[in-house]
Write a structure and sequence with these properties.
The chain is an alpha/beta fold and 295 residues long. The protein has ten helices and nine strands. The chain has helices at 10-18, 55-62, 66-75, 98-114, 134-140, 144-155, 157-163, 183-194, 239-253, 282-290; strands at 22-23, 33-36, 41-44, 48-49, 124-133, 165-175, 205-210, 218-220, 230-234. Helix 2 (55-62) crosses helix 3. The chain starts with 9 loop residues before the first helix and ends in a 5-residue tail after the last helix.
Length: 295
């Protein structure tokens, strides 16, 4: 496991374990709770679950809440990611930071030299079509493609090191999502609007990004469900939580099941650990290995 990815602040550790970000409320009303009728969000006098807030609500809250402001400020930054081949940067957004691109290339060359004798089998390239809705694009602005790209590159690190599978971003598309909290409905909507089932345009996997509140962190098609080649996720508040979630959802495409809220196994498919590790349990590793040619 890449240790630099798991070095988190105390705030983020709490957030990852709970699967949410709880922020002290700006002010307390006379009543203990206030219900926002428009978004159906419960605002407690002591804490706010920002995973249930819309992009506009988060921005408004950041104006008066210092914790939220700092979290959003950090969330906007484009961070260094690992790449596995020069093809990984063939579809970089035009405004992707040049210094980060060059650092990624330098690190890739160093890794290739260090690991030249480790694996002798060929790498399976999985070409990814990124689709993002208006809430995700609005939140990240001009950097939405870079943020989604980085999520894919973070999600494939363990796939590459453990199974010689490399996710390569091939295409970006915009999509205006309907206002529904049904995650599967949103995933089907994006696929339908892009014509995914009839023309995948040279891609193998569709990665769908939203920032509106949905009833799951994300959902994915399993290998036995409509081809197992698409997944959707809601932005979780940090780059680290996003790539963890993306790796989790992509693992479903290879047949890995959820393990629920349990203490064992320590696996990214176990809800208890999914934001704290990029490892799979031996069973999931075996499942991915069996299905590594699936896409």
């Amino acid at each position: 496991m890449n240790t630099k990815k798991t070095t988190l602040s105390t705030l983020l550790v709490i957030m990852l374990v709970l699967g949410t970000v709880l922020i002290p409320a700006v002010s307390a009303k006379n009543t203990s709770k206030e219900k926002n009728q428009e978004s159906n969000i419960i605002l407690d006098k002591d804490e706010i679950d920002i995973s249930k807030l819309s992009t506009d609500e988060i921005r408004e809250l950041a104006k008066t809440n210092e914790s939220v402001r700092k979290l959003v400020e950090e969330d906007m930054k484009i961070q260094l990611v690992n790449i596995e081949s020069f093809e990984d940067i063939s579809c970089l957004p035009d405004n992707y930071p040049e210094d980060l691109k060059n650092q990624s290339i330098t690190q890739m060359k160093s890794d290739q030299l260090a690991n030249s004798d480790i694996s002798t089998r060929s790498t399976i390239n999985v070409y990814v079509w990124i689709v993002a809705d208006e809430e995700y694009r609005s939140y990240f602005g001009d950097d939405w493609q870079s943020k989604a790209y980085n999520t894919i590159e973070g999600a494939d690190d363990a796939f590459y090191s453990n199974h010689d599978i490399n996710f390569i971003v091939q295409k970006y598309s915009e999509w205006d999502s309907s206002y529904t909290t049904d995650t599967l409905e949103l995933m089907a909507e994006a696929q339908s609007e892009m014509g995914w089932d009839s023309n995948q345009q040279g891609c193998d996997m569709m990665a769908i990004f939203t920032n509106q509140y949905i009833d799951h962190w994300g959902r994915a098609e399993s290998i036995n469900y409509y081809g197992g080649d698409a997944w959707i996720m809601k932005h979780q508040g940090t780059a680290s939580t996003d790539w963890h979630l993306a790796q989790h959802e992509a693992s479903h495409n290879y047949g890995c099941p959820d393990h629920g809220y349990v203490t064992s196994p320590t696996c990214i498919m176990t809800y208890t650990y999914m934001f704290l590790t990029d490892d799979w349990c031996s069973t999931c590793d075996s499942t991915i290995e069996t299905n590594r040619n699936h896409l």
